[in-house]
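Hello,

Following up on my earlier ticket. Below are the two sequence lines again, exactly as submitted.
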Amino acid sequence: MEVWVQKYGGTSVANAERIKCVANRIVETAKTGKKLVVVVSAPAGMTDSLIGKAKEITHKPNGRELDMILATGEQLSISLLALAIQELGENAISFTAPQIGILTEPIHTKARIKSIPTEKLRAELESGKIVIIAGFQGVTEDNEITTLGRGGSDITATALGCALHAAEVEIYTDVDGVYTADPRVVPEAKKISRISYEEMLEMAGSGAKVLHSRCVELSAKFHLPIHLRSSFDYSNGTYIQEGETIMEKAIVRGIAHSKAEAKITVTGLPQSPSIFADLFAEIAAENINIDIVVQDFGEKTTMTISFLVSREDYESAYDITAAFIRRYEGARVTAEKDMAKASVIGIGMRSHPGVAARVFRTLADQSIPIEMVSCSEIKITCVVKEAEIEKAVRSLHEAFCENGEMAL
Amino acid sequence: MEVWVQKYGGTSVANAERIKCVANRIVETAKTGKKLVVVVSAPAGMTDSLIGKAKEITHKPNGRELDMILATGEQLSISLLALAIQELGENAISFTAPQIGILTEPIHTKARIKSIPTEKLRAELESGKIVIIAGFQGVTEDNEITTLGRGGSDITATALGCALHAAEVEIYTDVDGVYTADPRVVPEAKKISRISYEEMLEMAGSGAKVLHSRCVELSAKFHLPIHLRSSFDYSNGTYIQEGETIMEKAIVRGIAHSKAEAKITVTGLPQSPSIFADLFAEIAAENINIDIVVQDFGEKTTMTISFLVSREDYESAYDITAAFIRRYEGARVTAEKDMAKASVIGIGMRSHPGVAARVFRTLADQSIPIEMVSCSEIKITCVVKEAEIEKAVRSLHEAFCENGEMAL
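Thanks for your patience. The regenerated structure is below:
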């Protein structure tokens, strides 16, 4: 039995009218004979409204109780969607995560899925039902309700796709795919029809917010194709799949960027690798991600470290660093808040070594100073001042994506 | 370990302010050292709003999906209440019915509780936590979410009280107890401080809507005292308890009444007990309760049957009866829609046989015709025209309840 998984976000189930539209779309697909598992988010706005109710009671709601509250959102939307499908004469049944047994770690508000049993799902599918599953939720071995954090419903859909060895996971969203650059910055950006897991992972990690990295990791591990597409029309979106199966070769797949970064620089530290480790461990303990790290041995006995954090973590990271360096005489911390990064991404880079040079030349031609650089096998990231980022992205897009294949 | 169960209705958890008030009251009680299990309804208005959402999708929502939708109401209020108690520095934990395992029959929208395991509850109580339980909900052996129907949260509280052998169940509501008559009809009505299970059962069955009959049945079976009281003040309400333990003896405990009744009369039926059974079976099959039945053998070969149904069931009951009697030549059905009933209730009647006579004389003195009569060991019910019911209740209350003990 081959199964298709579809996931609809909160805007698709925001009200009765939208729910009926989605139900129609699902029934159309089911009538082609496909066995369907549909994952749904809470109605748009409901999660915020529920958090608001909790915040009226306490500023720091306990994670366990907050998860109980938040889980009501999807419980409502799955049942309403099941009713809408039944109203169209098809057989549908909804399940919360605890009912199916979507097992997670015993961590609240950002649990990770450990396993999903599939017997019950398969039995319902075999009996001809469309199965509707609450996204975002999980349950622990002790029957505690958990939630998966941001992008949780996408993760539920992907994990179900993996567990059921689905033919494909379709993620319906309010954008119609992944673009060669953010269309709000680069009007010439084109929709990417196919992208490899590795490229998508780098795009997601570099600021393209269309899909959570964990979805891409999971689907890559299980060789599960994901089709990211719009719930408002029937055109194809972007397929995320094995790189080897993509016919259309490109050296550069797209340009991702992220604003709201901050750079912290420490000078005058004694030259010792353990100091790195200690500082970054203290920052990590506060759940702050450090992005790009550059180390410079300026003098014989001291070193300079620069690293990038997201701007929302900037103050905490700065405070931790400032407190940390008091142990070292002569060490100083400085920060630049208005940074941004642009990343050029493509698996074709592996076999085409000239990409980095061309990236630097492109930015130099625009007189954009590069503050930091980081390269992986399939990605080159340049940190620039935020004021320069849109110009940087546009010039890189023009150089790599607009004139067909890049000539090297 | 002695446990107290408290139940708060929807108005008590309607908004953050009310929830904080209830939390305060709970914490006060907990500080006296009592082990507390608190049952909560959905916030006032939420159940109707959720039904409204389902009705926007379909006019006949499937019971299973409707139960999933309705269960979100209590899941929200239990978690918010737990947060409010935690905010006051006490330890609280909330559980949905599926989490505790409040097992019901596999019937939707009006399931009956089969069993409640108590190990988890006892463990949480012993660890010093206040345990908050979602009322109105249940779960089947197949992990399906059910609801208990009207008065469901009271039933949850009573069933928990029975399962935990609680010292007492306190039901907090927007009335402050059971009255000798409905105070909207009889301004002189007094709050009853103690009432026996049997009397309460008759009061509930005769129109006093303060507590579901199933709560009284359950608590009687387990000898569990129920204290029905107001959530707005600290005065005692009404204790429902074993008749033998009530010191204050009264022949008549109170007068209950119910408007919106309808009487259906069939004449010209052949004299045969099986005809009764057949007709009433057909009516029962439509889930219509038949209240008082009077049979009259007017002539040698035919009989007359009259029975009372609630007005909302009147049309269906009439149609069923009209269709039924077509099998019997000469039979006719007539109906009177505007009926009501008044019941005089008291366990003291068992040993005081003159009550019925005095009831009839009281109504006769007021020139109120009695349409039907039904007597049990502890109750006398008179059916009168609805236009006469308030006069009837007031005169019966004056005769039996206002001048202290009735002289016989």
